[in-house]
Amino acid sequence: MADPWQECMDLCVEVTRRAGEMIREALQKDIDVMQKSSPVDLVTETDQKVEQLIISSIKEKYPTHSFIGEESVSAGAPSILTDSPTWIIDPIDGTTNFVHNFPFVSVSIGFTVKKEIQFGIVYSCIEDKMYTARKGKGAFCNGIPIKVSGQEDINQSLLLTEVGFKSDPEQFKIMLANIKTILTIPVHGIRSPGSAAINMCLVACGSADAYYHMGIHCWDMAGGAAVVTEAGGVIMDISGGPFDLMSRRLIVASSRAIAERLVKEIIEFDVGRDDADH
Ligand code: LIP
């Protein structure tokens, strides 16, 4: 039987590549930076233009599909996942990196049907790396199959998380305490590349052994979640329960042993849900 969503995936790759070109062009010019929820939550005109390009290109072909886009949600659109075919879009994952010309900037799109991720595309557009994954068919970077490291020993692992200011002092304290706990296990190191989607792809291709985060959104996770799962990675909630796209938190790892050890070490804090207000 023909793959019902392959056509959507092909369009997604094409649109994501165009979006990446737009981002690379914008990097040649002055970038106008605006603030969203806090002085460290940034947005640019390029984030908005890229999201418009992606949504209008897809809507033209699939007018009945649903969309959850970072900038549309910022502008008041609902962030609720239904059974309908849904495109979950982060036009620039790593906006702070984009603003500083720090070279980890991606376009991330995940596609769900009946709330299940069918495919994910992450285009690390400065590195020109196109990560693609179709459910049950493996993960690829620029067409070459990728897989996780398979590392099971946390002492031999390189981990990823994001380090950023948190306006809630208690959360800020826990975030820093978690880093200290993990470093003293010890692990080989912790890195913080600045794009959740790229972090997941780095685990997917074996360049890092795990990534954890509390406080991101479904558009940061959807594309990369497909890539890391199809590359043989383990994905779960920070509590050890099943991964939930709307929960704003996750652990991905090269093995269940590393993921479960992180569950044991990490102290959770409440980050709310993407679909909380609906
Ligand atoms: C960003 C993430 C980054 C994380 C930020 C933010 P944006 O996404 O990918 O890794 O630390 O909290 O969510 O806002 O650039 O799309």
Automatic annotation (TrEMBL):
Mg(2+) 2 binds at D90, D93, D220. The keyword Glycoprotein does not apply. Its EC number is 3.1.3.25. Pathway: Polyol metabolism; myo-inositol biosynthesis; myo-inositol from D-glucose 6-phosphate: step 2/2. Mg(2+) 1 binds at E70, I92. Keywords: Hydrolase, Magnesium, Metal-binding. GO terms for molecular function: inositol monophosphate 1-phosphatase activity; metal ion binding. GO terms for biological process: inositol biosynthetic process; phosphatidylinositol phosphate biosynthetic process; signal transduction. It catalyses: a myo-inositol phosphate + H2O = myo-inositol + phosphate. InterPro entries: IMPase, Inositol_monoP_metal-BS, Inositol_monoPase_Li-sen, Inositol_monophosphatase-like, Inositol_monophosphatase_CS. Its cofactor is Mg(2+). It comes from the Eukaryota. It is an enzyme of class 3 (hydrolase). Belongs to the inositol monophosphatase superfamily. This is Inositol-1-monophosphatase. It comes from Scophthalmus maximus (Turbot).
